[in-house]
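ZC12D ribonuclease
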Amino acid sequence: VNQSKLDLFCKLGYGKQDICKVLENLGPEALEDDVLKELIRMGSKPQALENQAQPSPLKLVARGSCSTTPGLKRLGEDESDSSDSLRPIVIDGSNVAMSHGNKLVFSCRGIQLAVDWFRQRGHTYIKVFVPLWRKEPPRQDSPIADQHILEELEKQSILVYTPSRKVKGKRVVCYDDRYIVKVAYEKDGVIVSNDHYRDLQNENPEWKWFIEQRLLMYSFVCNRFMPPDDPLGRHGPTLDNFLSKKPVLPEKKLQPCPYGKKCTYGNKCKFYHPERLRQAQLSVADELRAKTKVLLTLGKEEDRWNCSP
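Structure:
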């Protein structure tokens, strides 16, 4: 069983030493989901993510640029980002704006609220991706509210426009979701969106893992940007740990057993027994069986000695 699990997580890109360590801690009957959670808790990640974290010659550059360096400067990347304790934030501008506008209006105010929320938390790397055609004057079929906010965010090197152009009167738009996932993946950051990017998950297994583990959903309540306190579910990390590069594990507080030494559950008791730390934690029934077995063995030996000449 362990070998099949070892092969499975090796294919996903995890290190063999990390997998063996987790399997030793959890035991041979551990579920795959539990093994994956433990690997994530340890800070382990697929080898592809570690390779992407290093400088790579393949960088995301706006179409039409001559070299990679100016493109990177336009994105406003700093050398100090790697030393920051908080994860980089990549916001799906279209998704956030339409959500704030109740899917009827492209509300730029929603983007500003999201950016301000992460700024107040201390995040230094924040990028918002919006299609270039949103710069154009609003039309009746695609209304935009507070369009001046886009200009302000662009001046602050926070907002990035994804390319689009017109060919024979028809608009050709580049897929902005691909930009969002690619930059967040390369920066090992967090994607802020209510979109699941299912097409991109099917396209790339490494992106699938990343989207599942690093997608931060949200809600707007009375012009207040509100992400959940448990982004990966009730048994997952807290929001603070989710947004941190080095999550802090909560200390396990063991609750003492209310029955104390009178408890008859033995090793099946879920509570803490300080008096049993150096003892084999057997149930009362198991202890009686063990004592009876010892007495029977001693009795047989005595009979054998008595019968011998």
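Residues 166 and 172 are 6 Å apart (CA to CA).
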